[in-house]
């Protein structure tokens, strides 16, 4: 997740060079708010279905490790939870990072 935010920030910097500082701040705020909105929606959808699900709750340590390592460390509990979540909510369009963050917020 941090990598995508860094990429978004870098893109915003490159595009905002000739613009005023106020425009840059507004652009960055819109991008960050959009990312936060997606994460919040994923969390709400996940919490509504999996708030007391043992498979998902058992994955919290692995999810924390995954987020902290920016996706480099994937534990067995997290893998099981991702499969479980996607099986129950196939319409949910979220990447592994967003789901890991949603698991952490349960």
From TrEMBL:
Keywords of the record: Signal
Signal peptide: 1-21
InterPro entries: CHP02448
Source taxon at top rank: Bacteria
NCBIfam families for the chain: conserverd hypothetical protein (TIGR02448)
Name of the protein in question: DUF2388 domain-containing protein
Native source organism of the sequence: Stutzerimonas tarimensis
UniProt lineage: Bacteria, Pseudomonadati, Pseudomonadota, Gammaproteobacteria, Pseudomonadales
């Amino acid at each position: 997740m941090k990598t995508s935010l860094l990429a978004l920030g870098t893109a915003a910097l490159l595009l905002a060079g000739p613009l005023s500082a106020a425009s840059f701040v507004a652009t960055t705020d819109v991008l960050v708010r959009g990312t936060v909105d997606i994460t919040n929606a994923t969390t709400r959808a996940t919490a509504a279905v999996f708030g007391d699900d043992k498979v998902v709750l058992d994955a919290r340590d692995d999810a924390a490790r995954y987020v902290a390592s920016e996706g480099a460390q994937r534990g067995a509990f997290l893998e099981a939870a991702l499969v479980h979540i996607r099986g129950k909510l196939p319409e949910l369009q979220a990447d592994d990072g967003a789901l890991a963050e949603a698991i952490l917020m349960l």
